[in-house]
Records
---
Amino acid sequence: MPPWFKKKQQRGFGSGDAGYARLVDNSAVDLSHGVILYLEDITVSFDGFKALDRLTLSIDDGELRCIIGPNGAGKTTMMDCITGKTRPDSGSAYFGQAMDLTRMTEPEIAAMGIGRKFQKPTVFERHSVFENLELALKRDKRVRYSLVAQVDDEVRDRVSDTLQRIRLEGEAERMAGLLSHGQKQWLEIGMLLMQEPRLLLLDEPVAGMTDDETERTAELFQSLAGQHSLVVVEHDMAFVASIASIVTVLHEGRVLAEGTLDKVQNEPQVIEVYLGR
Amino acid sequence: MRTPLLFRTLALFDTTGWIATGLFVAIMLVLLPLLHLALPEQSPFYVSSYVIALLGKILCYAIVAVAMDLIWGYGGILSLGHGVFFALGGYAFGMYLMRAIGHDGVYQSDLADFMVFLDWKAYPWYWSGTEYILWSLVLVVAVPAFLAITFGFFAFRSRIKGVYFSIITQAMTYAFMLLFFRNETGFGGNNGFTDFKRILGIPITSPGMRVGLFMLSGLTLLMTLLLCRYLVTSKFGRVLTAIRDAESRVMFLGYNPLWYKLTAWTISAVLCGIAGALYVPQVGIINPSEMSPANSIEIAIWVAVGGRATLWGPVLGAFIVNLAKSYFSVAFPDYWLFFLGSLFVVVTLFLPDGVLGLWKRLRSRVRRRT
Amino acid sequence: MMTKFLMLLMLLGGSLMAGATLDAALIHTLANGESDEKIRAIQDLGALATPEAVLVLKSLSDDALFVDGEHVFYLNGDQAIDAVTGLALTPIPESSDNVVINNRVRSELNTALSSLKLFDPKPSVRRKAAEALLNDVSPDMLPVLTKAVAQETDAGIRELLLLAVAQINLGSPEASLRLSAVQALENSSSPNARNLLTILLDPAHEPVEAVRRAAQASLKSVDNRLALSDALARIFSGISLGSILMLAALGLAITYGVMGVINMAHGELLMVGAYATYVTQGWFRLHWPQALEGYVLAAIPVAFLSAALVGVILERTVIRWLYGRPLETLLATWGLSLGLIQCARLMFGAQNVELTNPSWMSGRVALPWGLSLPWNRIDIILFSLFVLALVWVLMNKTRLGLFVRAVTQNRAMAGCMGVPTGLIDTVAFGLGAGIAGLGGVALSQISNVGPDMGQGYIVDSFMVVVLGGVGQLAGAVWAALGLGILSKFLEGWVGAVIAKIILLVFVIIFIQRRPQGLFALKGRFVDN
């Protein structure tokens, strides 16, 4: 049997395709052991190059975790695996105790309560800021509901709350494409908030922000930790230092070190990877 | 609280939009039919049956253009195979028209002439029931819908996008064209269906029937516009355009693009099928060349000329291109292809938003100056 | 070339061995006798079947045999050759009459000449004669045939001749002769042999049991060989179709596969190449008719350059403004294709134009297992391999290829490193277009050349590129061959139209299962 057929079967034709976009009460995620995300032995290879090599990682509920690592360490690939964009060649990824992420599609995973911010800010440039947030709102996302959905007062309230939080109050009717880079980053974070996810994956959230904006982002993230779990990939060490309690260092698709920032910064392997001896 | 339906309908267009709609209704559904039916032929204002037939044909094309705009302009999915849905709708209704010929064909047989010619003894199974107009109308909707759903489901599920999708839709219509060219397929081969006599007992060439079909096409176009306008202004439409602009973002928000695309795609295909069914009795013939890749790609240019993602633009585009076509084919038949070809080039290079976009740009410039 | 040399050798040999070769009385009867005597002389000369006899009979048939008193001679260039001795006559006789024959004699002469064709120095002529024999063979030709078999050097023709002999023997009243004929047919692989043997299975036709049984056995082995040769023929025509698809798709593999430009006018660039071939042929006819045979070779650079020129113009004027907007490119290039078609119509007329294959591309070559392959197909397969090698070297071994690959992978970075990206785009597009022009040369030799010819190939060539995987030359090659062979086998089962439909459906399904094509790139950059 040619290899691609096997691939397809793994994806699981119609593995609960029908119900994924239904409004899910994501408190249903089984957090009985206090762990919200558990990756075990994940391996992904592209044409022989191993982007992830038996990666094992676990995130506690309510934790704010920073992931650092040099380019090509596999940070983005890891996020792709968690959100269903890339299927791991082997290994398992669990959301809570019972949800196998490797068997779910991207929309299913998103509906279960994992939100993701891309490295490059991705908003709907030809929609207004308001519409961007409205589309992100946690609602039933199946076609038949979208066909009859209306913008009611509840939607307006929720959107204006979030607008305030991301400091875009005056921009509601503006085209998202006209925002500055930093504003787009904030809008995307705002869209994540509208989704009310349990777990937020943020890929370089402060890239292109001014110092002031970065500081406010740090405040926002800290206020989110607790009710939400956050995984932040970032190169800006000052930012990492300002928010994280625990830092994970990835290198060549594996966890190189884990612990407080001070601790990992003093590990010899980490220094070697970053400075090259 | 939910807004009442009437208000929601009224909110579909702005004032200019409703004025345009009113003008359209006044001209297409009232003025032209009256001028054709009520005036004597000598009158300088008499609208000839040639004009009625030509405009009726273009109205059908305009429906197709609006349907194409829904999927291309708003969904970002360029189909190069919409001709196949149009033709399938035409063939589905054409089957009824063939059965309605009765014994008045050349061979005066129960069977359609081409079947007698092929020495067939009975109608094949898929022709059964087509002597009833209602069943054939069901087929007009069901056949394009079925093809669109099967094709679209597999294509969108495999995340085939952009040019890839365009190319396989082209291959699809090409395959159907080859299939329908065969005599054995049972749809008249090369010649297709023609020589229709009547619908529901009324002769197809009578002025009443002609005007009736014309008005029906105009009405269908109007309904199509309202439906598509509703779709694109609803949350569904916002999700659809969001998919067009950033599909993966939409997925990570929890929407499955598959169903959104499939819905828009199927609605678009069904609208084409209906347009095809209206087209066939007015033109009097349907044959496999309607499925040629060239025909389908021409639909895209109507939309592009008028202006993508505007709904009214494609209507305008369909009229501009097709009126130009009938003018050229009489006046300079040798240069029609040059004109059409340069239209493709000029519109893509200089008029990315089509004629409507140009109009808007000029208007805003004039306003700024004053 | 070879054959001409042989002919010369034979002529020389004929004149050297002079004298004893032909009976003088016979020649004189031929020249001066009554009609009945002439016929007998013709038959005698025919039975001799020597090259000299053939020459004499041919001259007679061409009204080029002359009588001058005691000499009977024919002309060979400036020389007058004595029909009896085969030596040149000097001086050339001044007054002479040509030998006149009536229709009865002429028809006898034609029969003799046609059986003499079995001894012609050109294998192609002998083959044709032998093939003609199989349709109409009479028992009184047996002695000539036996002689021809003994002389024949070409295995394929020998096979045909033996078949003819067997055919005669099968009608013989002697069972033993029939049996040996049946056994001789065992090694044949022609459908005719199969037909003959099938008749023998009928007891009404063949009373002797042993012969029937032998016929059964022979039939089986003939059938096996026929099946094999049928399969081989299909594979060959599949490869041939595949090579054409590949030629049509290779240019596209560069413009679309590597540069990412959807060029719907690609088929029209094929057409430009084909018309360039046509124009070259016309030029040769007008200015250099002696070298007409070589016009196809001269057309190769002409077609490449003209298609490349058209491509460069298209790229500079239209396509370059649309990079990164594939759907717009698709529509604009479609518009360009319409313009090119209409140009061709206005310049060359809407009808197909006439191209003749040079002699080295016409005819067939015979292979074992009853296979005979047309030369033009073989030449095109070789040509497509040549083009493939050319493209591969250009893309992988030259600086240009390096630049093209660099620009397509990261335009900004390539620009920073001093690669003239705009120029590279133009050159690469011109290259792709030129290769399409080469495809046009090949197409002009096997199919109609007309304004619409390109339209038929656009769907096919996109199928090949998409199936093979974007950016993959190897993918395009395998996809073309695979589609070619598959389509030929399907045609055998379900007919051409359904085969084509099945293939299109197959490609559609395949792309859905595996959107990246046969040879996919994997990794993060795939989605973008």
---
Amino acid sequence: MVGRGTPSPSSWGLGDGQAVPWEYAPAPESRDIVQLQARYGLFVGGKEVAPRSGQWFTTIDPATEEPLAEVARAGVEDVEHAVGVARRAFRRSWGELPGRERAKYLFRIARILQERSREFAVLETLNGGKPIKESRDVDVPLAAAHFWYYAGWADKLEYAFPGRAPKPLGVAAQVIPWNFPLLMLAWKIAPALAAGNTVILKPASSTPLSALLFADVCRQADLPPGVVNIITGPGEIGLALVKHPDIDKVAFTGSTAVGKTIGRALAGSDKALTLELGGKAANIIFEDAAVDQAIEGVVNGIFFNQGEVCCAGSRLFVQESIAEPFIERLKDRLSTLRVGDPLDKNTDVGAINNAAQLAKIEELVEAGVAEGAEIYQPACELPARGFFVRPTLFTNVAQSSRIAQEEIFGPVLSVLTFRTPEEAIEKANNTPYGLSAGVWTEKGSRILSMVKRLRAGVVWANTFNRFDPTSPFGGYKESGYGREGGLQGMLAYLDLGDGH
Amino acid sequence: MARAVTKRADAAAPGPERIPVRKTYKLYVGGQFPRSESGRSYVVRSPDGTPLANAVRGSRKDLRDAIRSARGAFAGWDGKTAMNRGQVLYRAAELMEGRRDQFEAEVEAAEGIGTAAAREQVDRAIDRWVWYAGWADKITQLLGTVNPVGASYFDFTFPEPTGVVGIVAPETSSLLGLVSRVAPAVVGGNAVVVLASESRPLPAVTLTEVLATSDVPPGVINIITGLRRELVPILASHMDVNAIDSWGVPLEMRQSVEEAAVENVKRMARPPRGDADRFDWLDDRRAQRPEWIAAFLEMKTVWHPIGM
């Protein structure tokens, strides 16, 4: 029970806003392992090429705002070139290659990612701002695991869909976000290649570097030229790519607004489309929940990757009978979060990915205050430079307020309360989104009842923010359609024959 | 006027000519048979131009009422056991079987085909209900998985219905095409609003009479007749419709329908290009498939820690 018994290790018994009463020695990961080029061209046809557009842009480290490298800004002529190259690779080599041979390339890629895992982790943190312990322990190993998992499917597709004749769709255009650059690349490329498609991937404009390092992995794996192509640039290039008439398949992960733009752009075409869009997940704590685990789950749910996660548990629903002590425990826990240098191995909350996102988070935090919610932020010091924001908790939040309705995509938690399971369900489902949800209770039958009634594609029970290549992920309602991961994730890249 | 349905009765009438009682073809919404609130109708003709009947020209309000009915019925239908849903749909096939002659006469008149061909369409439509009814308690095992995640969690994925599905029924195949699109959506637990074939709506209306006396709960299947150019855009843009089956959407409307459907990220099931009107609904291998049930299902993944 909250407030009674032995204090858990996670509860330091501190008052509001106090800093942890000891210092952590700095434990920075060395960035020497990453050898940055001054300039990165596009990766088309198996080699790095200068953009035909002749344009470049600078990519930065969001923790310091220092430039890291120049990156090609692809133009429509580069899109044209990449699509042609991918089409030829599909026709001439990859589409005809037996599954067992495709598999071996994917296994190679998985192995190389494992071998170069530290380099990828450091680069991902440098360019994206996420804590090194997350890129090291989550992003990179999971990315490798996705290639490993889908490698094994490449020569077993006839068993995956018995009685069908699964065939690749052709050339896939894949547009991914900046919150998990390498992991999203793996979610997209691994099943596409396993199915026999060729791909053109456009990473987010603020985080191109791990994808460009992945180009080097493709070279090391001797992947046939043109099977994987990576073009960098702003969102409008992504749109030009998905609209190209010679694209057969479009996969997008990102905001619901951009997903709708892509959906409209593809209306009336024959392109296959899967969308993994925004979310506003409810994380529901019942009075009989195991509180220590629930506190950790709530913190992981909203502060993992600075809350820049489409499935983040951004709406906390606490049963009224335990709300007060639970929120106090939560505030205590927030005060122990270490915010700062993403390369420091002790850092819990790193830098916000980019200036525009920081401005959006700050605007919504201000809106929360203006709408009468009560704000709590621990008194941690933020670095003088870079894009940082304090972990933020709002109580006294109205269901209708912007911070309870809109996807913030930052370390901002809105706390609401409920009395009955029915009320929790009604409030949890009262959103156009339906990506994920969390339930915390020690009663098994209640978990299963909540699982059934929550309109969300992933339900974490007594846990949160877990991912695995074997586990299908994707949304209900305006959180998109199609699944990534697992056997179900293969479907997005296959034609089972005989039309749709 | 309803010549098609009474054709046999006319021929068999002995003695002084009996004046047949004609049927009024109505909408089917929430288990009721309303006429359109708009009071409009349109003349339905056979392919050779013979007038067959007046069909209701459903309005925006009729369609919205149907969507509201479907939404209201969804939770109850989804909440039934899978076996129960299968039995309820099988019951609809039983009742169709008893009306084979009537369906045959209507399909013959509506599609301008011979008696034997019409009989084949009707028989296959009944068999298709039975085929899909049997999937009710099997599709979850076909599509669901237990996922061997690389950590100490029990992780599984299973399908759930998308919600309210708007079905623009195939235009040429008045009964078999309609059944082939409605059955997969309904067996998965969705509630549906169906726009019947605009030019051949009468067999669909007769199907509603079967549904009304079956155990299919009111609101689970709603059928509207009317003009596609009026009704399809409303269905496609309605924010409480979760998915659109666009087999009957005219090619020239396809882009605008898909644009409108994006607004609330509707799921789309569409025919291969140019194939909708020529599709051979008698070809079991192509025309009945579990993927068509899956098209209106969402996959839900659940994680739980394993521990003492």
